[in-house]
């Protein structure tokens, strides 16, 4: 299942996180449990279980929910879900540590470490922009950020989700039309640290960055374009976001 911020369960989790941020834990707990109860597949359930877990006051209950999230994520043959395994094993290890079981804590920390390293995503990959490009052109780092123009980016960013690239194109500065290009990395790449393990566990948006050029190999036109009202909401979120870009 592809990560979609408009998904009902994802929206409930986002609302719950907002309640956490405003120190309303009971409301957050209610929203996370609602997400769990209304989830319809393992992908939605593992995300909801992850958030239900962190609202548990009892450590044993927290551990049980973390283990439920891990089991659900492990059942999914999906790059995005697998990217969360390191986070989930770490959470389980921390719970065992709090329960006074160092052996099980270490076992889970070791399993978490086994999922470290470079991404294994095989793509295809996409880059969203308003620039008019042709197959064979190279995208390179060293340009101003679309979101904080005073920052010169040390990396070039891309994703394995065409709709995610489409959102990036819609948010990009410039007057050209929104374009989503199929790209090939020419060197190594890493998970985008600006989204990985931030709001959601792992790299569910399959977002990456590289210091090496991206080669344009084609263009797609069939991505799901975001509605004007929702686009305005995204722009407002970016304007209100005072967080530092990890460059």
Overview of the structural elements:
- With 247 residues, the protein is of the alpha+beta class.
- The chain has two domains: 107 residues, Tetratricopeptide repeat domain (Serine Threonine Protein Phosphatase 5, Tetratricopeptide repeat, Alpha Horseshoe); 116 residues, Rifampin ADP-ribosyltransferase domain (ADP-ribosylation fold), CATH 3.20.170.
- The chain is 45% helix and 13% strand.
- It is built from nine helices and seven strands.
- The protein has a four-stranded antiparallel β-sheet.
- Helix 6 runs antiparallel to helix 7.
- The protein is globular.
- The protein starts with 7 loop residues before the first helix and ends in a 7-residue tail after the last helix.
- 36% of the residues are buried.
- The mean pLDDT is 91.
